[in-house]
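User: Hey, quick favor. My workstation is busy. Could you predict this chain's structure for me?
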Amino acid sequence: MVASLRSSSAVPYSVIPQIVDSFDSMIGLTINSVQAETKNILSESGVSGDVLATVKCALQRQSDTLSHPLDMLSTKYKQDQYFDKHPLAVKPETVILGHRYETKNSVTRTVYDSYQYVSISYTS
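Assistant: No problem, here it is.
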């Protein structure tokens, strides 16, 4: 999801961490809801207190393990680090097309025209 959002030029980078945080929150709420509903069902079905306490502890351990699963992608820096280490990620290369002179407010400066090239390897 994050790779797809980053590859879309229509989605600014500043929005992606907010989307990741929203998904992280939804996952957390879902985990808490499942945990609470499981405890309610077991309690209503007459399960003993010892078993209920054991299940509650097991659910809490799993909840702690699963909390904030997308935290590793919560900032642009963390995303960059993740994708830099991913074996399928291809880093774009900046290719300079040339340079030109641009004058703005009576100040002339050199502007380099470039584009980002991403090599694609196709195997059948």
